[in-house]
Design a protein that fits this description.
The complex is a heterotrimer of chains A (806), B (284) and C (333).
Chain A lengths: L14 H6 L14 E7 L5 E7 L1 H4 L4 E5 L25 E7 L2 H10 L1 E6 L6 H5 L12 E6 L6 E6 L21 E5 L2 H7 L2 E9 L2 E2 L8 E6 L2 E5 L6 H11 L6 E3 L18 H11 L3 E3 L3 H7 L2 E2 L2 E9 L5 E13 L6 H12 L4 E10 L13 H19 L3 H8 L6 E2 L4 E2 L5 H12 L1 H4 L6 E2 L2 E13 L6 E6 L5 E5 L8 H12 L7 E5 L17 H28 L6 E4 L2 E4 L2 E7 H11 L14 H10 L4 E6 L9 E13 L5 E11 L6 H20 L5 E2 L4 E2 L4 H4 L12 E4 L17 H17 L12 H9 L13
Parallel strand pairs in A: 1-14, 12-13, 17-18, 24-25, 31-34
Antiparallel strand pairs in A: 1-4, 2-5, 3-4, 6-7, 8-18, 9-16, 10-15, 11-12, 11-14, 16-17, 19-20, 21-22, 22-30, 23-24, 23-29, 26-27, 27-28, 30-31, 32-33
Helix pairs in contact in A: 9-10, 10-20, 14-15, 18-20
Chain B lengths: L3 E5 L5 E6 L2 H20 L19 E3 L3 H22 L10 H24 L3 H4 L3 H16 L13 H24 L17 H30 L4 H8 L2 E3 H7 L28
Antiparallel strand pairs in B: 1-2, 3-4
Chain C lengths: L11 E3 L4 H11 L3 E4 L5 H6 L7 E4 L9 E4 L2 E5 L4 H6 L1 H6 L1 H8 L4 H6 L2 H6 L5 H4 L40 H7 L3 E6 L2 E6 H4 L18 E7 L7 E7 L10 E10 L2 E10 L6 E2 L1 H7 L6 H11 L12 H17 L1
Parallel strand pairs in C: 1-3, 2-3
Antiparallel strand pairs in C: 4-5, 5-8, 6-7, 6-8, 9-10, 10-11, 11-12
Helix pairs in contact in C: 11-12, 12-13
Classes of the chains: A alpha+beta (806), B mainly alpha (284), C alpha+beta (333).
Chain lengths: 806, 284, 333
C-alpha cells in the first residue's frame, strides 16, 4: 500500500460541523408543524396504575394526544416499554403527552390524575435474596433463561430466588446460595492448595449511570408510509431493525437519521427506550413530534452499569503466579433483562490474570432502579477494579514489583481463557507493560510510592485491563464515481470516536486514494448504508476495517478487471496507483479511476452494483441497489479468516496525591499504554485511552448512584449530584502509548479500543490510593474523602461490605 | 377556612401534616369572645348565692388545696404557658429558638401530670372531680337560670362546681392529647432521650399525631384564656387565693359550697389531705 | 399532581431599574414574589416546579446593586456583583484576599460569571431531600427525611441541627464572617445593617429561611471593614469534586499577629451547620498566644467538641478539626 493513512492523524469529516455548531444532534432537528412530547414519570419505585384521568389535560387548547401502554404495539410482559402501567422504578414513564409546546405538555401533565397503587420494591439485591425480602417484580426477583422443553429454545422467565437465613449469618461475607450460572476450569481446590498466599475478600462496586453528554432526545414524523426517526443512537442500520417491533413498523419503512451522537457509552447501542414516544405520538397526531430528554430524565431513561456485590477468593504462588480464582458476583440487574456484566466479569478475569484454576458464579437480582445496559467495559471495569488491588496486596506480600506481577500473570497470543478455554487472535500485554514502564519512567515513578510531605502522601498504581475488541462478517460498500470521487458508505454510528471515518480510511489506503477525494457517507439509512456491526463491544474498528478492506479489495479487483477488459491482458497484469489502474509493465497503459467508473456504469452487472454477491446482508443488498449504476461499486462481506477472540488490552498507570488531613485525592499523573493492534488514528486513540481512563477515575473517586432506601428514590440525577469527574479532577497532561503490533487475523490488524481504558483508569487510581494509604484495601468503590479520612482516623464508617446505593 | 394542612409525600400521595395554624386564631378568638361575653353578662348572676347558715365548728380557714396539689398546679401552669408560647408564637411570626424549650417543658409537664395522676389516685377522690348526671342537670338548670332568668337557681356544689369539673375534663383531654403525641413527636426531632426515627409510624399515622397535638394545643389556648380570666375576676378571688395559699375562708365556703356535698369535717389546715385532683379546674 | 422536572412554569417577570421599585414590587406580591439575582439557585427551584412564584423580580438592572466601591471605612460590594468580579477585583484581592479566594472556588467559571455575591450568600440549602421537593420541615412539613436511621446524610450537618439537618452551602459566607463584614438590607421600612454573623439563622429560629431577610427585604450590599484589611488569611474548601461542587467542609480565618502572638482572630467553618459557624471557643484558644502546632491542635479539638454527627457524616468531625488546625497554622505562617 502506497499510502499510509493507518497510524496518521487527520481531520475527520465531521469535525468542522462540530466545532462550528453546524452539526445537528437529535434535538436540533425541526420539521414543519412540529409539536412536542413530554412524559409523566412514576413517583414510586414500583406501582400499578389503577386509573388515568386525562380529560382535563386533553381539553386544554394545544394539547393533542396522550400515549399510554394501551396504545403500544403488542409486547411481552417482560419487555421494557416507553410508557407502562406497572412502573418498575421511580422515574419510569407512565404516559406521554403531545402538545404545542413543552411548557404546555408540562402543564397538561400536572392536570392528569393518575391513581397509583404502591407495590413492594427492592433496592438491594442481597435484601431481595433473603427469605421475606421484597421482590422487584410482582412475580419474582430474577430473570433466568431456561429451556422449558427438550430441544426447545431457552426462554426468559421471571423467577423467585431466595436464600435461607443461615447463608446471611456472616454480614461481612457474601451469602453464596445456588448461582444462576457458573463455570469452572482446572481444579480449584488444588489451586488454592498450591497457593502460598490466599485472600478471600468481600467486595462492592457501585452502580453508575452512563450520563452521555447528549441526552436521548428523539424527533419523528411520518411521510408516505415511512417513518423518519431522528434519535440519538450509537449504531445506525442495525437500530432500524431493533426498534421496528416497538413501533410496529417494518425495518424497511424506517428512515433513521443520526449523523451525530453525543456519546452513548453503551446506553444507546441499537435504540433507546423513548424512541416510540415520538414515533407513535406522531402517528396519532399526524404531526412531527419532538421529544427532548432532559438531564434529569436521562438519569431514568438512560441506562446504568450494574453494581456488584461480590466475594473474591484468590490464591498466588510464591513466584507471583495467580493459581486459583473463585469469583462470586451478585449483580444488581435493575428491573429488565439479564445483564451481561457478571458474565463478562468472569471472562475478563480469566483472561487478564490467566488463573490456572478458576470458578465463576453469578446471580443477577432484579431491583427497582433504572434499567441497566452495557456501559463501556461492562463487567470488565468492575472486576478489574476489584481484583487489581489484590495483585498489589500479593505483590507486596511476596516482594514482587507491581508491573512484574502483572507480567507474570499476563496473557499472550497463545493464552486460553474463559469457561471454554478459547484462544485469542493475539495479545501483546507484556510488550505493553514494558512500554508503559518506559513511558512512566517506572524506576523513578516508584519513588512516589508512600512519599510523604507534610499532610500529603503520594501513591502510584498500575493495572491491566482487557476487553473485547472485534467481530467479523459484516459488509463494506463503496462506489467510485466517474468524477473520481470514492464515496464510502459507512454504517458506523458517529458517537464521537471517529471510527465511522477511521474505518473508511482503510478503503482509501487499499485503493491508494487521496483522502480529499474520498467522501464518507454516514448517519442516514436513506443514504444506503451497508450492514454494520453495532457500535458496542469495541468491535467496530476491527470488524469494519475488515469489511472496508473486503469491499475496497473487491473494488480494486474490478478496476483490474475493467482495465484488462478494455486494455487487454489479464486482471493480474494491472495494478493501481495515483488514482489510476495501469499495467504493471507500462504505467501509461491504464485508465483513471473516474474513467473506470464510467466503464463500470456502461458494463453494468457486477461492476456498477446491479449484481452483488449472494453472501452480503439484505440490508447491504438494498443499499447497493440504491446506488447501482452510479459508478464502480465495491460491495463485499468480510470473509477473512479468523481464529480466536479479539481482545484489546490497556495498561494504566496513575499517581495520586492524598491529603491525610482531608481525605482528598488528586490524580497527579496518568498514563495508558495499549495493545490494540494496528493504530488507525493516533490522536483519537489517545483520546479514547484518556477519555476512558477519566471515566474510570470517576468511578474510582466518586461518581455513583445514591438512593433513599425508605422511598426508593435516587438523588443523583444530574451532573452536579451524580458527580462525574471534572476537568480539575484529572491531570492536565496525560500520557498515552501503544504497542502497534497488528492483529495477524485481520488484513488491517486493527482492534477496538473503546472499553478497556475504563478499567485501567479506575483500577490504577484505586491501586494508587491503596498505595498511598500504606496498603489499605477498601474493597469498595468509589473511594471518597470520607472513607479515606475515617480510615486514617480509625473511625468506623457507616457502610457494611455490601451496602449499596449509598 | 382550612382545618388541616396537607402535603404531597415523596411518592406524590397526599398526606396530613398538621392542623391549619388558623385554628390557633380560632381558639384565640373563641377564648376572647367567651371572656367578652362573660364580662357582658357577668352582672346578671353576681351575688346570687346566699351564705348557708351554720358553719359553727368550722375553722376560719378551710383547706381547699394541699401543698402537693398547689405545687403541681403551678408547675403545670408554668410549663403550659411556656409550651403555648413556644408552640404558637413562632407560628405567628415571633421567631426565636423555641424547640428545646418546648420539649423540655413538655417533659416537665409530663412529669407533673404523672405526679398528679399518682397523687390523684392515691390521695384524692375521683368522685370529687367526676362530672355526674346530677352535675349535668344542675349545670343546665344554672345555664337556663343565668341566661333567661327563668327557673330556680341550681343548688350549690360540693368541693368543685360543675364548670370547674368540665374544665378539668377538657384540659385533661387537651393536655393528654398534646403530651402523648408530644412524646411521640420527640422521635421526629433530635433530642438526647428518644432516638430519632421518623419512620416509626406511617405518614398517615404521623399526620394524625401532629393533628392531635395541634388540636390539643389550640384547645389549651382557649382553656388557658378562660382559666386566667376567671382567676383574675374579683368574685373568684377566694378560689385564686386557695391555689396560692391553700385555703378559703369559712364565709367563702359557706357562700359557694354546700357543706352537705363537701364534708370538710373539723378541718386541719396543716394537712395535705385536701383534694388536688381538681387543680386544673379550680378556677374554671 | 404529577411531578414535572426541568420545565419552568409561567411567572410574571419584573425588571425594575431602581432598588425602591424592587422593594415595592416585593412588598406588593408578598409571598408570591421571588427576587432573582444570578438565577443559579432560583432556576433550579423553578425548573423543578418546587417553588412557583407568581412574580419574579429580576434585580439585574438595578445599577446600585452592582460594583465594588470604597467607603470611608473599607469596601462596599453590591450584592449583584458577579462572583468572578469579586474573585478578580484588584482591591479585594489586595486587602481581602480571603474573599477573592472563596469567591474563586465557587462552582465553575460559568457559574461564577453568572452567579452573584448576594446570591451566593442568600442561596438556599442544597439538602437533596429538600430540593427534591419533599415535604420536610424546611418545606413546611413535619419531618426531616435526611435524619433517619438510613438517610443519605453524608453531606449534612454536625452542628446546629434543629429538626432540619441541612447545611449552609455558601463559600463566600465564611469568608465574610471572618472579615466581620456587614450586610446592608433594604426593605419596605428602609435600610438596616446586620453583622454577617447575625445575617444567617438556623432552623431553631426559623426552619424555612437561611437568613434574617424578611419577606420584602433584599440584601443590597456587603461592607468589608478596614479593620481586617490586609490581615493574615486562610481559606480552604474541601469537596468531592474539584469543580462544580459545594464544600464538604470549608474553613476561613482572619488573624492579626502582633509581636509573634495573635492579637485578634476570627475563625469560621461552613457546611458543618445550617449556618456559617463562628468558632469562638477555638478563637479564644489562639487569641493572645503564638500559633504553635500544639495551640492549633488544641483549637481544632475544641472546635469539634460539641459535634453531633449523623450516621453518615462522622468524617466531618476530623475534617473540620484538621482544617481548623491547618487554617491557624497556615494563616500564622
Amino acid at each position: 500500500m502506497a499510502r499510509t493513512y493507518h497510524g496518521t492523524d487527520y481531520t475527520p469529516p465531521d469535525l468542522i460541523a462540530k466545532v462550528t455548531g453546524k452539526a445537528r444532534y437529535a434535538e436540533d432537528w425541526r420539521a414543519e408543524g412540529m409539536i412536542f412530547a413530554k412524559c409523566l414519570l412514576s413517583p414510586m419505585p414500583h406501582c400499578r396504575v389503577r386509573s388515568i384521568d386525562a380529560s382535563e389535560a386533553l381539553a386544554m387548547d394545544g394539547v393533542h394526544a396522550i400515549l399510554t401502554e394501551e396504545d403500544l404495539p403488542e409486547h411481552g410482559p417482560m419487555q421494557e416499554t416507553c410508557v407502562t402501567n406497572e412502573p418498575l422504578f421511580e422515574g419510569q414513564a407512565i404516559l406521554a403527552v403531545a402538545a404545542d409546546s413543552e411548557t404546555l405538555c408540562a402543564d397538561a401533565i400536572e392536570k392528569i390524575k393518575v391513581d397509583l397503587e404502591p407495590l413492594p420494591f427492592a433496592l438491594d439485591p442481597l435484601q431481595s435474596l433473603r427469605e421475606g425480602g421484597s421482590n422487584a417484580r410482582t412475580d419474582g426477583n430474577s430473570i433466568v433463561r431456561e429451556v422449558l422443553e427438550e430441544g426447545g429454545r431457552p426462554q426468559m422467565l421471571v423467577k423467585e430466588t431466595k436464600w435461607s437465613d443461615d447463608l446471611f449469618a456472616d454480614a461481612d461475607r457474601l451469602p453464596m446460595g445456588d448461582p444462576h450460572a457458573e463455570w469452572t476450569f482446572g481444579d480449584l481446590d488444588a489451586g488454592f492448595e498450591a497457593a502460598d498466599v490466599v485472600y478471600d475478600v468481600a467486595m462492592y462496586h457501585q452502580n453508575v449511570t452512563h450520563h452521555p453528554l447528549e441526552p436521548r432526545s428523539c424527533m419523528a414524523y411520518w411521510q408516505n408510509g415511512k417513518v423518519y426517526v431522528h434519535p440519538s443512537v450509537q449504531s445506525i442500520p442495525i437500530t432500524a431493525g431493533s426498534i421496528a417491533g416497538s413501533i410496529g413498523v417494518a425495518p424497511t419503512d424506517i428512515v433513521l437519521i443520526c449523523e451525530y451522537c453525543g456519546g452513548g457509552f453503551g446506553s444507546k447501542i441499537a435504540g433507546t427506550v423513548n424512541i416510540p414516544v415520538s414515533v407513535l405520538l406522531s402517528k396519532m397526531t399526524s404531526r412531527p413530534v419532538m421529544h427532548r430528554i432532559t438531564r434529569y430524565e436521562e438519569n431514568y431513561m438512560g441506562r446504568a452499569r450494574p453494581g456488584f456485590q461480590a466475594q473474591i477468593k484468590v490464591g498466588f504462588r510464591k513466584d507471583g503466579r495467580l493459581v486459583a480464582l473463585d469469583l462470586y458476583v451478585v449483580q444488581d440487574n435493575g428491573p429488565y433483562g439479564i445483564q451481561s456484566d457478571m458474565g463478562s466479569a468472569g471472562t475478563v478475569a480469566s483472561l487478564s490474570y490467566q488463573p490456572e484454576n478458576m470458578r465463576w458464579r453469578g446471580v443477577s437480582v432484579l431491583t427497582n432502579t433504572p434499567p441497566r445496559s452495557a456501559q463501556r467495559a461492562p463487567g470488565g471495569s468492575q472486576v478489574t477494579t476489584l481484583i487489581e488491588p489484590l495483585l498489589d496486596r500479593a505483590a507486596e506480600e511476596l516482594g514482587i514489583d507491581r508491573f512484574e506481577m502483572r507480567k507474570i500473570n499476563a496473557p499472550d497470543s497463545d493464552s486460553k481463557f474463559n469457561a471454554n478455554q478459547g484462544g485469542l487472535t493475539c495479545a501483546y500485554v507484556r510488550e505493553a507493560i514494558d512500554k508503559a514502564k518506559e513511558l512512566v519512567d517506572w524506576d523513578n515513578a516508584k519513588a512516589l510510592s508512600r512519599k510523604r510531605e507534610g499532610s500529603k502522601v503520594t501513591g502510584v498504581g498500575v493495572a491491566v485491563s482487557s476487553y473485547t475488541a472485534g467481530n467479523f462478517g459484516f459488509d463494506g460498500l463503496m462506489v467510485m464515481k466517474p468524477s473520481g470521487t470514492l464515496t464510502i458508505h459507512s454504517g458506523v454510528g458517529n458517537l464521537g470516536t471517529h471510527s465511522y471515518s477511521d474505518v473508511s480510511r482503510t478503503a482509501a489506503e487499499v485503493l491508494d486514494m487521496p483522502w480529499e477525494n474520498c467522501e464518507v457517507i454516514w448517519g442516514n439509512t436513506a443514504k444506503h448504508l451497508p450492514w454494520t456491526c453495532v457500535q458496542a463491544g469495541s468491535m467496530t474498528t476491527h470488524s469494519m476495517t475488515r469489511a472496508a478492506h473486503a469491499a475496497a479489495t473487491q473494488l480494486k479487483e474490478k478496476l483490474q478487471q475493467i482495465a484488462a477488459k478494455d486494455l487487454g491482458g489479464s486482471p493480474s497484469d494491472y495494478t493501481i496507483g495515483g488514482e489510476r489502474v495501469y499495467h504493471r509493465s507500462n504505467r501509461s497503459r491504464g485508465m483513471t479511476y473516474g474513467k473506470a467508473a464510467d466503464r463500470a456504469i456502461a458494463l453494468g452487472g457486477v461492476f456498477d452494483g446491479h449484481e452483488v454477491a449472494e453472501d452480503i446482508n439484505p440490508v447491504t443488498k438494498a443499499s447497493a441497489a440504491g446506488r447501482a449504476g452510479q459508478g464502480l461499486m465495491g460491495a463485499a462481506r468480510d470473509n477473512y479468516e479468523r481464529a480466536g477472540s479479539v481482545y484489546s488490552f490497556v495498561i494504566g498507570y496513575a499517581a495520586i496525591e492524598l491529603d491525610t488531613d482531608t481525605g482528598d485525592v488528586q490524580v497527579i499523573d496518568y498514563a495508558a499504554v495499549t495493545d490494540c493492534g494496528t493504530v488507525m488514528n493516533p490522536r483519537s486513540l489517545a483520546a479514547q485511552l484518556h477519555g476512558g481512563g477519566v471515566q474510570g477515575m470517576g468511578m474510582a473517586l466518586g461518581q455513583k448512584w445514591t438512593f433513599d432506601p425508605q422511598w426508593g428514590v435516587p438523588f443523583t440525577h444530574r451532573f452536579y449530584s451524580a458527580r462525574p469527574p471534572s476537568i480539575l479532577d484529572v491531570p492536565s497532561v496525560m500520557k498515552a502509548g501503544w504497542v502497534d503490533e497488528p492483529d495477524p487475523h485481520s488484513p488491517v490488524g486493527a482492534k477496538g479500543i473503546g472499553e478497556p481504558p475504563v478499567g485501567a483508569g479506575e483500577a490504577a487510581v484505586v491501586c494508587a490510593i491503596r498505595d498511598a494509604l500504606g496498603g489499605h484495601d477498601f474493597n469498595r468503590t468509589p473511594v471518597q474523602p470520607d472513607m479515606i479520612l475515617n480510615v486514617i482516623e480509625g473511625r468506623p464508617d457507616h457502610y457494611r461490605p455490601f451496602t449499596t446505593h449509598t | 377556612m382550612e382545618l388541616f394542612q396537607y402535603a404531597s409525600n415523596p411518592w406524590g400521595q397526599e398526606v396530613l401534616v398538621r392542623i391549619s395554624w388558623s385554628l390557633f386564631w380560632l381558639a384565640l378568638g373563641a377564648g376572647v369572645l367567651f371572656v367578652v361575653g362573660h364580662l357582658a353578662l357577668r352582672g346578671r348572676w353576681q351575688g346570687q348565692h346566699t351564705a348557708t347558715a351554720g358553719g359553727a365548728g368550722l375553722p376560719e380557714k378551710i383547706e381547699r388545696h394541699g401543698m402537693g396539689a398547689r405545687l403541681f398546679h403551678w408547675v403545670m401552669a408554668l410549663s403550659m404557658l411556656v409550651l403555648l408560647i413556644t408552640g404558637f408564637l413562632p407560628q405567628i411570626g415571633v421567631q426565636f429558638s423555641w424547640l428545646t424549650l418546648h420539649w423540655v417543658f413538655g417533659l416537665v409537664l409530663v412529669v407533673s401530670i404523672v405526679f398528679h395522676m399518682i397523687h390523684a389516685t392515691v390521695v384524692l377522690s375521683f368522685s370529687d372531680i367526676w362530672v355526674s348526671g346530677r352535675d349535668v342537670k344542675e349545670w343546665l338548670q344554672g345555664l337556663r337560670h343565668d341566661l333567661t332568668g327563668s327557673g330556680e337557681a341550681p343548688p350549690k356544689p360540693g368541693k368543685y362546681p360543675v364548670d370547674h369539673k368540665m374544665f378539668h375534663h377538657a384540659a385533661t383531654v387537651g393536655g393528654l392529647a398534646a403530651i402523648i403525641t408530644g412524646v411521640l413527636m420527640m422521635f421526629r426531632i433530635e433530642d438526647p432521650i428518644f432516638p430519632r426515627d421518623p419512620y416509626m409510624y406511617s405518614d398517615g399515622t404521623w399526620g394524625v399525631i401532629y393533628v392531635l397535638h395541634g388540636i390539643g394545643g389550640v384547645l389549651l389556648v382557649g382553656l388557658t384564656i378562660t382559666h386566667v380570666y376567671f382567676a383574675i375576676l374579683p368574685e373568684k378571688r377566694g378560689i385564686t387565693r386557695s391555689m396560692i395559699k391553700g385555703w378559703i375562708t369559712r364565709d367563702e365556703f359557706l357562700e359557694h359550697h354546700d357543706p352537705e356535698r363537701w364534708d370538710v369535717g373539723e378541718g386541719d389546715a396543716d394537712t395535705d389531705a385536701a383534694p388536688s385532683a381538681a387543680a386544673v379546674s379550680e378556677q374554671g | 399532581m404529577a411531578t414535572i422536572r426541568d420545565m419552568i412554569p409561567e411567572f410574571e417577570l419584573f425588571q425594575p431599574q431602581g432598588l425602591d421599585d424592587a422593594v415595592t414590587l416585593l412588598e406588593r406580591y408578598g409571598e408570591d414574589a421571588w427576587p432573582l439575582a444570578g438565577g443559579l439557585d432560583s432556576f433550579d427551584w423553578f425548573k423543578d416546579r418546587v417553588k412557583r412564584p407568581r412574580a419574579v423580580i429580576d434585580l439585574g438592572a438595578i445599577e446600585a446593586l452592582h460594583g465594588v466601591r470604597s467607603t470611608g471605612d473599607g469596601l462596599e460590594i453590591g450584592a449583584l456583583t458577579p462572583l468572578s468580579e469579586v474573585a478578580d477585583n484588584a482591591e479585594i484581592r489586595d486587602k481581602y484576599g480571603i474573599l477573592a479566594q472563596a469567591a474563586g472556588l465557587v462552582a465553575t467559571p460559568q457559574i461564577r460569571n453568572q452567579g452573584t455575591l448576594g446570591g451566593n450568600l442568600c442561596q438556599d440549602t442544597r439538602c437533596w431531600y429538600y430540593r427534591g421537593g419533599w415535604p420536610c420541615y424546611r418545606a413546611g412539613g413535619n419531618i426531616c427525611y435526611a435524619d433517619t436511621p438510613e438517610s443519605m446524610n453524608r453531606e449534612h450537618c454536625v452542628f446546629g441541627a434543629s429538626r432540619c439537618v441541612a447545611v449552609n452551602p455558601s463559600d463566600t459566607a465564611p469568608a465574610l464572617l471572618a472579615l466581620d463584614a456587614e450586610m446592608v438590607l433594604q426593605g419596605p421600612g428602609g435600610q438596616r445593617t446586620v453583622a454577617a454573623e447575625d445575617f444567617f439563622i438556623g432552623p431553631a429560629v426559623d426552619i424555612t429561611r437561611m437568613t434574617v431577610l424578611r419577606p420584602g427585604e433584599l440584601l443590597a450590599a456587603i461592607r468589608l471593614p478596614a479593620s481586617w484589611a490586609g490581615a493574615s488569611f486562610y481559606f480552604e474548601k474541601v469537596r468531592d469534586r474539584q469543580s462544580w461542587d459545594f464544600a464538604l467542609v470549608s474553613v476561613a480565618t482572619t488573624m492579626k499577629i502582633e509581636g509573634g502572638s495573635v492579637s485578634d482572630i476570627r475563625l469560621v467553618a461552613n457546611s458543618v451547620a445550617p449556618y456559617p459557624m463562628r468558632l469562638r471557643e477555638a478563637e479564644s484558644q489562639v487569641r493572645g498566644s503564638a500559633v504553635t502546632e500544639a495551640v492549633a491542635q488544641a483549637a481544632g479539638d475544641v472546635a469539634v467538641v460539641d459535634a453531633k454527627p449523623l450516621h453518615q457524616n462522622g468524617f466531618k468531625v476530623p475534617l473540620m478539626r484538621n482544617l481548623v488546625r491547618r487554617a491557624l497554622t497556615e494563616a500564622a505562617a
